[in-house]
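Sanity check

After download, print the first record. It should look like this:
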Amino acid sequence: MNDWIVLDRTDRVSTIRFNRPDKKNALTTDMYARTAEAMAKAEANPDIRAHLFFGVPGAFTAGNDIGDFLKVAKGGDHGEDVLHFLRGLVTAKKPIVAGVDGLAIGVGTTMLLHCDLVYATPRSLFKTPFLDLGLVPEAASSLIAPRLMGPQRAFELLCLGEGFDADRAREAGFVNAVVGEAELEAAAKTAAQKLAQKPPEALAAARALLRGDGADVLQRIEEERRLFAERLRSEEARAAFEGFMARG
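Expected structure tokens:
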């Protein structure tokens, strides 16, 4: 087994680190599966009080591995691993914190919409090039983003595909604070540890009040999933994937 997902459980915080730097942390189906499993185990462990996500210097994640997309476009099976990961983000009862440095592309941006606290460095770039790949938004971003930042700014992010820098992401409402590269991990860890020290039942109740039951979010994930699966096998998407792989 590779070390593309690095796990740590310290101070009641479950830390998941994407660790595939040579591919800018592009996520494979196995990485999604291992991340979903790690979250599920942390949710079931009463000693764990918070989830924390990191990438590597310069790359939170470049999004889904395009090679996996191309396999589906050529007739392969997309599998359930991505869906399990996305559902895990929605159904988590414990708070989720993320520290972002560098690229946060595709799901690297949309997963942050499910986090409770997000810290980012000035060199971070948030971009969702779904349409450029012949695809549609996912992770219920088509529902959450307009609610969070308004329909025009959400359209700019999800459809026009314009990248948001860290300050723009903070203005849009899905980044809490912009901190220096040297301070990022300490800032995110400190926040997660503070949450882990709070009364867990009260924290869970307060978080549930803020987030709601998530039924509409899960429903939108399913709707997006159907369209996404159709688009993965479209001629537009296959041409985009092959073009991307040729450039790489």
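If your output differs, re-run the checksum step. Summary of this record's structure: The mean pLDDT is 96.
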